Amino acid sequence: MRFYLFFFVMFVALSSTSQDIQDVEAQMARLQKILSEEVSDQDKLNASDQFEKLLLEAFELEETFNHNFFSIPNVAKHLSKDGLFRMFNWNIPMADGTHVYRMYLLFPNGKYVRFEDSKELRREEEGIVLKPEQWYGALYYDIREVKIKKKKYYVLIGWDGNDELTTKKVLDVLVVDKKRKVFLGAPLFETDEGLASRRVFEYANDAIMNLKWLEAKQMIIFDNLEPTQQNLKDQYAFYGPSTTFGGYRWDGDFWKLEDNVDMSRPKGSESAPQFNFPERPDFNRIRDKKNPLTGK
Asked: I need a surface site. Which of 52, 88, 219, 248 has the fewest CB within 10 A?
C-alpha cells in the first residue's frame, strides 16, 4: 500500500502542467481519497501537498473560479454571494485525533491568498485580528455576508476537530480590503464583556453542539453550553449542550446576542420551518465524527 501511494504521488508530481480542468480535478479526487484512508500521517500530508500543487495549477485556468469540482466533495469550495472570492478549505485528520487544515482564497483574476495553519484556535484570542499567516486552522461550512454602510464583512461558521478530548466551533469574520488584503476578525459579535472579533465554542468530544444559520429566524443559532457539574466550570472536556439555545441576529451594525431563543414549533403549525434540534439536547447525543461538509 505504501509503495502504491508513493508511486501515485510521484506520478502526480511529474505530470505535465498543461492539463485541462477535468484532468486536474481527476487527480485531485484521487489524492483527496488518500486523506480519509487508513494510512500514515506522513502519507496524508504528502498527498495534501500534492493536492495543493494541483490546486495552484488549477488557479492558472480561467474556468477554475466557477468550476463545480463535484469530484472533491470533502473540500469546501464556497463562493461568496457577491462573487468576490472563492474559498478552498480542507482538513487532514491525524492519528492522534488532531487535524491539520489548509485554505486558499481565490479571486476572479487568478490571484490567491494562502492561509497558514500555524496556531491553536483559542477562546483567549476572541478579540484579536489575524493575518492569513496567523490562521488557527478550521473547516468552514458556511459563509454569510453582511454590510455596514458600504463595507462588506463575511461571517464564517466553522468546525475544528481539535483533539481527543474536545471539539471546537467558531464564528469569525473575513475582511477583504480594496487592495485585496485579507485578515480574520472584526468586532461584530456582542458578548457580556463587549464586542468580540470572533466567538469560539469548546465542548466535550462525545457531545454535539449545533451552530448554524437558521433561515426561518434570520439568525445564527447555537446550543448554549454548560458543564455536566458546576465544579467543572472551564473544563471544556466536560461541556455539552444545555436545554436552551442562543443566537446572533444582525442589527445593521453588529451581531446582537440573544441568550434565550425560543426554538419550539408554533402551535398548530406542523410544517412551520424550524431548526432540527431535539426538544431537550443532552450528553446522550453522540458527536458526529463525520466531515461536516459531506456527512461522510
From this structure: 52
Rounded to an integer, what distance in angstroms lies between the CA atom of residue 119 and that of residue 42?
A: 20
Contacts of 124 (CB under 8 A, 6+ apart): none
DSSP E strands: which ranges in 177-234? 182-184, 189-191, 194-196, 199-204, 211-214, 219-227
CB 292 within 8 A of CB 75: no
Task: Spell out, as residue ranges, where the chain has pLDDT lower than 70.
Answer: 1-18, 265-296
Strand ranges across the sheet with 112-115 = 86-93, 99-106, 112-115
**Beta carbons within 8 Å of 44's beta carbon, 6+ residues apart:** 34, 35, 92, 93, 94
pLDDT digit string, tens, across residues 60-78: 999 999 999 999 999 999 9
**d(C-alpha 43, C-alpha 37), whole Å:** 10
Cell 490562521 found at: 135
Give helix 21-34 / helix 2-14 axis angle, nearest 10°. 160
Name which of 106, 107, 130 is nearest 55 in CA terms: 106
User: Please, where are the H alpha helices in the chain?
Assistant: 2-14, 21-34, 41-59
- 237 and 204 Cβ atoms separated by less than 8 Å: yes
Mean pLDDT, the chain, integer: 88
* 90, 158 contact by CB (below 8 A): no
Q: How far is CA 267 from the centre of its chain?
A: 35
